[in-house]
Specification:
The chain is an alpha/beta fold. The protein has two domains: about 200 residues, 3-Layer(aba) Sandwich (Rossmann fold), CATH 3.40.50; about 180 residues, Glycogen Phosphorylase B (Rossmann fold, 3-Layer(aba) Sandwich). The chain has 15 helices and 14 strands. The chain has an eight-stranded mixed beta sheet with strand order 3-4-2-1-5-6-7-8, sandwiched between helices. Strands 11-10-9-12-13-14 form a six-stranded parallel beta sheet, sandwiched between helices. Strand 9, helix 8 and strand 10 form a beta-alpha-beta unit. Helix 2 packs parallel to helix 3 and helix 3 runs parallel beside helix 5. The termini are close together.
């Protein structure tokens, strides 16, 4: 099959994420894949076409989307469909596609997907990774039934109607979409979770010298939370927990990444000067990998959302056989999946006493950490590899 994959989250050359892993899996099965992605770092390069790992990559200048104000991001997304459509016509115009795949965000590509589906007479598989506009309502960016809500809701409905199949990240996510969009047929919606191509084997003894480099105690249980630092994680709770555990030497926190809440954490850390935590905005790739490998417990935080969320950072924890401590809201099932699989514990976001108790539980039970980490690796291999996602998608299109 000839496949066109469209995303705003395709990484720079030489880097990988869950989308590169998935498209590599299609290539391994003999399919031809073209990718249309975005770049917002160099406005002088409007488009670029390259081949990476046997995949043609068309990168289109999008305007600022990442690390931009909300208004600038929305402005860029409003014009993105037209830019991508023009670039596809120019560079892939003579190609024929048998299948179109695209993830959210954004939902503002609804017209583009509808036009491409009609032009190529090809089915469209939607990977639903973010639910708009409800997510923005939950984060109080705008109100439900306001003009922005109606605008984005119209895109959402059009996108769902255009899709032949919708893959949600979790069972509760699929239930939510069907409940909130009763025009959808249940047979159109399924679970197609985040997935990766995991490393085949882990180092038996990670290099703990990395802890010395960043002044992380070797004998502490290290809890790691790294990646996007956004409002939806409720990172005030993280700061409160670190302060509450200031006199508990068995636990240490490594918190880092970028996002709208980094400055908040930076200010909070400057005020309290915690000795039990490291805050970083960026680390060399090799250093981060070593810190992740030598950490003991992965953290998941979810706050405010009324629609189910399933952060992809969970897969990194499972890949490295790390148990997971979740502090999440009641409207997501990631915590119950972790607990049912015996690879971690879950508490309600905001329940400081329960979270502190969870931190101490892991810090004082190294054998239990090891057992849960192994269970997490099993969960990953059984449910969250790209081979599983590939089979779920292609089940609809095998002759």
């Amino acid at each position: 099959m000839n496949i066109l994959f469209i995303t705003i989250a395709w990484p720079a050359a030489g880097q990988k994420n869950l989308y590169t892993d998935l498209m590599d899996e299609f290539v391994r099965h003999g399919h031809k894949v073209d990718v249309t992605g975005t770049q917002d770092s160099d406005r002088r390069i409007r488009t670029s076409l390259s081949e990476e790992n046997g995949i043609k990559i068309l990168r289109v200048y999008s305007g600022k989307i990442r690390k931009a104000s909300y208004l600038r991001k929305i402005s860029s997304l409003l014009f993105l469909g037209g830019k991508l459509g023009s670039a596809i016509r120019k560079h892939f115009g003579k190609s024929h596609y048998d299948l179109i795949i695209g993830p959210t965000p954004p939902i503002t590509l609804s017209f583009l997907h509808k036009r491409l589906k009609r032009h190529y007479q090809a089915p469209f598989y939607l990977l639903l990774k973010d639910i708009w506009p409800q997510g923005s309502v939950d984060l109080k960016v705008f109100r439900k039934y306001s003009l922005p809500w109606w605008f984005f809701r119209s895109h959402e409905v059009r996108l769902y109607k255009t899709a032949d199949h919708i893959g949600c990240m979790s069972p509760l996510g699929a239930e939510y979409i069907l409940l909130k969009n009763q025009f959808l047929s249940p047979g159109k919606v399924e679970v197609c979770p985040n997935s990766i191509c995991p490393v085949e084997a882990l180092k038996a003894s990670p290099d703990y010298e990395i802890r010395d480099k960043y002044q992380i105690p070797r004998d502490a249980c290290v809890f790691i939370f790294s990646g996007n630092l956004g409002v939806g994680h409720g990172l005030h709770f993280v700061a409160e927990a670190i302060e509450a555990l200031a006199d508990y030497p068995k636990a240490y926190f490594a918190i880092g990444g970028s996002g709208t809440q980094y400055r908040y954490l930076e200010k909070r850390f400057a005020e309290s000067s915690p000795r039990n935590a490291l805050l970083y905005s960026w680390l060399p790739h090799e250093d981060f990998g070593q810190i992740l490998a030598t950490s003991d417990v992965g953290l998941i935080f979810l706050y405010r959302y009324t629609s189910p969320q399933f952060p992809s950072r969970l897969l990194s924890y499972l890949e490295y056989a790390k148990p997971v401590l979740c502090a999440v809201n009641k409207d997501t099932d990631i915590g119950s999946i972790v607990e049912d699989s015996e690879c971690g514990c879950s508490v309600t976001h905001g329940d400081l006493d329960a979270f502190v108790k969870g931190v101490k539980y892991f810090s004082e039970r190294p054998e239990e950490r090891k057992r849960m980490g192994e269970k997490g690796r099993e969960l990953l291999m059984d449910n969250y590899t790209v081979s599983h996602s590939y089979e779920i998608i292609m089940n609809h299109f095998e002759e």
